Amino acid sequence: MTTTGIAITGSGAATPSVLLDNNQLSQLVETSDEWISSRTGIRQRRLATTEVTLSHMAASACENAIAMAGLQPTDIDLIILATSTPDDLFGSASQIQAKIGATRAVAFDLTAACSGFVFGLVTASQFIRNGVYKNVLLVGADILSRWVDWSDRRTCILFGDGAGAVVLQGSDRDNLLGFELKSDGSLNSSLNLAFQPEAKALTPQITIGQGKYLPITMNGQDIYRFAVKKVPEVVEKALFHSGLTAADVDWLILHQANQRILDAVAQRLKIPPHKVISNLANYGNTSAASIPLALDEVVRSGKIQSGDIIATAGFGAGLTWGSAIFKWGK
């Protein structure tokens, strides 16, 4: 088994066509465009209709990433789907594998909520570094509109639907420069999409819990305080592992949760605003999709060039958070 390096050679994205802006949202709950945009930076979000499945949206993002990398679906060895909202609770990665015709690939789901893409990036890299697989497809996708309480103005203003993907390939040079992953289950209650069991008696002696999942609940103040404190720390640790400092970073791509969080983290890291990538105004919080969705936009616009150093960080439910530092391209 040979150890090899990693190159991130392709990106892709897909979002639903239906758009819900803040003015339309203000017809559902008592809010306004000024209130939402001033506090979150979000102006609109994309929403999946009943006909849109997560696997279909993710497959489109994957096909775009594979094409940019110059590969065929049959070249892919492994597919990792980072999601909290699969079409099937047993997992949706295999459905993506079938849809794109990646007949040689093994596929599995990974759940780390809004940190899912960063956790997936680190997981995918281990298979390549160990020489087990050569071409890995990582896709972050979520349809959070399925699980939002649309009468709760604290949460319904935040979330949108989308998918983003990258291709990682074995390389002579290792472009994943460093990473740091963290979890703290003691803070789990700050952000939940929880199962609520209801007692069902099978026999006089045996009762089990059956039920359903409840809509998303969140303590926004807890998450804000957590993010502005922990995210700069984890980025600094990942940079330390990379042998770099914040001054070496060309682009900062954080999980697109709230513009205030993006600004506060960048300020603490002393990374200037022109290096901070933000597209949450158009998409809202798309959970595991948010980092690759933002990455693909700036790659396709020509803003990010091969060899640029990108610092990413995800943070969210679990609570989980993590950072990965990588060079874009071969």
From TrEMBL:
Ranges of residues in domain Beta-ketoacyl-[acyl-carrier-protein] synthase III C-terminal: 241-328
EC number(s) from the headed UniProt entry: 2.3.1.180
InterPro entries: ACP_syn_III_C (IPR013747), ACP_syn_III_N (IPR013751), FabH (IPR004655), Thiolase-like (IPR016039)
UniProt main location, coarse: cytoplasm
Record CDD domains: KAS_III (cd00830)
Protein's pathway: Lipid metabolism; fatty acid biosynthesis
Keywords, in A-Z order: Acyltransferase, Cytoplasm, Fatty acid biosynthesis, Fatty acid metabolism, Lipid biosynthesis, Lipid metabolism, Multifunctional enzyme, Transferase
Domain notes: The last Arg residue of the ACP-binding site is essential for the weak association between ACP/AcpP and FabH.
Protein's recorded name: Beta-ketoacyl-[acyl-carrier-protein] synthase III
Organism expressing this protein natively: Limnospira platensis NIES-46
Gene: fabH
